Amino acid sequence: MSLTFARTTKSRALFTKLHPNYRTLAENNSLTRKFSIFIRTSKRSTTPEPATITTHYHRQQTQQQKQRSQSLHQQYRNMSSSPSETKPQFAEGSDPAVLGPALEKLLSTGGGRWTLTQDGVAIERTFKFKTFAKTWDFMTAVSLQCKLKNHHPEWSNVFNTTFVRWTTHAPKGLSSMDIELATICDSLAKDFGELEPEASASSAMPNLTDQAVASSGDCCTPKHLRK
């Protein structure tokens, strides 16, 4: 702590009381303008200085901003790995350069109505018609094409709605047959008067199809290759 006194009568009298040898100091040191008294205290204050508090607060804020930035980056990575960003998984022996553009036209992202499954190995969509008869006619026409192509879908039907999923089981993935038959399904559905899709689609029919697939066993691997 530093106390500074101007050279006045009162300050000189106070300084004399604090320091008896004031006159000697004044003569020896030629103090002409001001006198400084330095008092050392035995105890230091435990309260941090304002500057220290400000620095600590700034560092704390910086750490919070860093954590928030990391959290946002993690959310972005999660969004990037969401099902909507799933890439198609083509079957072994397929040419992605040829099938890719054709598949894109079928998908909802390219103006179509098909959706890529989360694992990327299949495409699926729901067809809805005015009556059960129309729906059955559609399924019959599709089954005839399946017989000609020697390829079958995973599907289920409830009244006037049919759920269709195309995938190749051996080798696993999307093949040219899946793309071709999905395109045929779109054309046949139009001929039989498909209704416009509803805004909210139920997941009951895909689940029904999954249960049927799980209980059907190995349907595509030749018998001599089955274990």
Give a short summary of the structure.
By secondary structure, this protein is α+β, with helices and mostly antiparallel strands.
From the structure above, extract its key features.
7 helices; 227 residues; five-stranded antiparallel sheet; alpha+beta
Strand segment tally: 7
Please, how many helices? 7
- In which range does the helix fraction lie? 40-55%
Topology pattern, helix = H, strand = E? EHHEHHEEHEEEHH
* Mass-distribution shape: globular
Strand residues, percent: 15-25%
Mean pLDDT: 74
**Protein structure class:** alpha+beta
C-alpha Rg, in Å?
42 Å
Largest sheet: 5 strands, antiparallel
Low-confidence stretches: 1-6, 30-43, 78-84
Distance between the termini: 92 Å
Structure description:
The protein has 227 residues and is α+β, with helices and mostly antiparallel strands. 47% of the residues lie in helices and 15% in strands. It has 7 helices and 7 strands, in the order βααβααββαβββαα. The protein has helices at 9-18, 22-29, 50-80, 96-106, 132-149, 176-191, 204-216, and strands spanning 2-6, 34-38, 115-116, 122-128, 154-158, 161-169, 172-173. The strands form 2 sheets. Strands 3, 4, 5, 6 and 7 form a 5-stranded antiparallel beta sheet that branches. A two-stranded antiparallel ribbon has the order 1-2. A hairpin with a 2-residue loop joins strand 5 and strand 6 (161-169). Helix 4 runs parallel beside helix 6 (176-191) and helix 5 (132-149) packs antiparallel against helix 6. The chain is globular, with a radius of gyration of 42 Å. The N and C termini lie far apart (92 Å). The relative contact order is 0.09. Mean pLDDT is 74; it is low at 1-6, 30-43 and 78-84.
